[in-house]
Automatic annotation (TrEMBL):
This is Transglutaminase domain-containing protein. It comes from the Bacteria. SUPFAM superfamilies: Cysteine proteinases. InterPro entries: Papain-like_cys_pep_sf, Transglutaminase-like. Keywords: Coiled coil. Residues 332-393 form the Transglutaminase-like domain. Gene3D superfamilies: 3.10.620.30. It holds the Pfam family Transglut_core. The keyword Cytoplasm does not apply. Residues 131-158 form a coiled coil. The lineage of its organism: Bacteria, Bacillati, Bacillota, Clostridia, Lachnospirales. The keyword Phosphoprotein does not apply.
Length: 467
């Protein structure tokens, strides 16, 4: 992937020239690239040129994110469901859960559509012969939420090993590589972090334990392809705060350890700002926030109304790469679908518009039966200080009719979290020179050489919970 600076992302707030946009919407990607070439020679601003250069990247990636024609996606579904028809596909489109774009004038469907539908559509699951059952990781989660609510305070020790490796077909002997793997940071709920092992290299940089975008960077020259890994353990402590009882005492707040939970009024202002291109106060999001919040003035109730709106109206959906979306919260609000990070960003943006400080956390959801990337939000109200909101976990609970669990994730988290990123859209301490796999946070790792960055389809990653 090409050279890149994080500041380029701000240009996504700029509209494309109409000619480029029309070609893109029609799926005429080569013509759109040609149009960009012409516009780069015109007397336009440097900011718009930056936007057009980024659009070149988006146009290159779109066919990879949307690889299936209608016939190909039908064949994919029919391998699982022999009687799946084109009418079934149209119905999924009408239900707003089959994402597609035009490429060369023909509909192309998103790469994760089959997984998306099999995970959420009960009728499709039944036709595929997938019996509804409680998975081990879901069982552990339900038990842990119950334990937290009963005991009011739970600490979980988590031991993980994560790794990244170049695929053999892109490896070249003698490559000088720079690898970033995420690490837990000592903030809020996380403490007693120990790095137990990692791949040696010519240069290894471990970010400060209080970094808000923490990683280990390993630099080396590879004569043979190999796996880069880091192994660590930590303790994650959860104190239950019930925000749904009238006149609820805030005594449990005092059980939370450390000084991270409270910040000054001046510090709160940082969490009320726009952050282009995604945390921006667009006319539509301001209008939506006004409708959701109404005349409510109490910060906790404002945040609650926003949480209720997202968990009750936005359906969970696997996404195309975030790097292809010019405005993630607006995408979520307009389409009423999105994954964990998309929903978290909508919550954060609506809170900030409405005067409630809100921030980002991400890393891994890690319980003994499952480890995978996950994002969620925090919001700040007195007298509590920082509180959590996990709209996607809350929305999942809503979809399954579990109101107790939906309410739990307004104010609380389960302790199955490795939190590496406490800010959104940040630079690594050891900076990358090329376009990252994910320019907004680091959950699975990054690799680049002296001459290029590597995309998600050029690397292999693993995440292991060590019992």
């Amino acid at each position: 992937m090409r050279e890149f600076q994080t500041k380029e992302l701000e240009s996504l707030a700029l509209e494309l020239p109409e000619e480029v946009q029309q070609y893109k919407l029609a799926g005429a990607l080569e013509e759109a690239q040609d149009a960009i070439g012409r516009w780069m020679k015109k007397p336009i601003s440097e900011a718009l040129k930056t936007r057009l250069r980024y659009e070149q990247y988006i146009l290159e990636e779109l066919p990879l994110e949307f690889p299936y024609t209608e016939q190909e996606i039908l064949q994919l579904f029919q391998e699982k469901i022999p009687d799946f028809s084109s009418e079934d596909l149209k119905e999924l489109e009408r239900q707003n859960i089959a994402e597609w774009v035009y490429i060369h004038g023909e509909k192309h469907y998103i790469h994760n559509l089959l997984r998306n539908i099999l995970d959420k559509d009960d009728d499709i699951r039944e036709r595929a012969g997938l019996m509804e059952k409680l998975t081990e990781d879901k069982k552990l989660l339900l038990e842990k939420v119950k334990e937290i609510q009963e005991k009011k305070e739970v600490t979980e020790q988590i031991h993980l090993r994560t790794s990244i490796r170049l695929k053999d077909e892109v490896f070249q002997p003698g490559m000088k590589v720079r690898v970033h793997l995420p690490l837990p940071a000592k903030w809020y709920q996380t403490d007693e972090i120990q790095i137990l092992d990692y791949t040696p290299g010519k240069k290894v940089t471990v970010d400060d334990v209080r970094s808000r975008y923490r990683s280990i960077c390993i630099e080396d020259t590879l004569e043979e392809n190999r796996t880069f890994y880091v192994e660590y353990q930590m303790k994650v402590r959860t104190v239950y705060i019930d925000l749904w009882k009238e006149n609820e005492e805030v005594s449990n707040v005092s059980l939370r350890e450390g000084t991270d939970w409270k910040i000054s009024e001046e510090e709160q202002k940082e969490f009320l700002k726009e952050q282009y291109p995604h945390i921006r106060f667009s006319p539509y999001l301001k209008a939506l926030a006004k409708e959701i919040v109404g005349g409510e003035k109490r910060p906790l109730e404002i945040a609650r109304r926003i949480y209720d709106y997202i968990t009750e109206h936005v359906q969970y959906s696997y996404m195309k790469a975030y790097s292809l979306i010019p405005d993630i919260p607006q995408y979520c609000a307009r389409n009423l679908r999105g994954d964990c990070g998309v929903q978290a960003l909508l919550f954060i943006t609506l809170c900030r518009i409405s005067g409630v400080p809100a921030g980002w956390q991400s890393g891994l959801y890690a319980n003994p039966a499952y480890v995978g990337p996950h994002d969620w939000a925090m919001f700040y109200v007195e007298p509590y200080g920082w509180l959590y909101a996990d709209p996607s976990f809350g929305g999942s609970a809503f979809a399954s009719g579990d109101e107790n669990r939906r309410r739990f994730y307004f104010g609380n988290l389960d302790p199955y979290r490795m939190t590496a990123n406490h800010e959104f859209q940040q630079e690594f301490a050891v900076k990358k020179g090329f376009m990252p796999i994910d320019p907004y946070d680091n959950q699975s790792g990054e690799i680049e050489s002296e001459t290029q960055g590597f995309a998600s389809y050029e690397v292999e990653t693993e995440k292991e919970y060590i019992k």
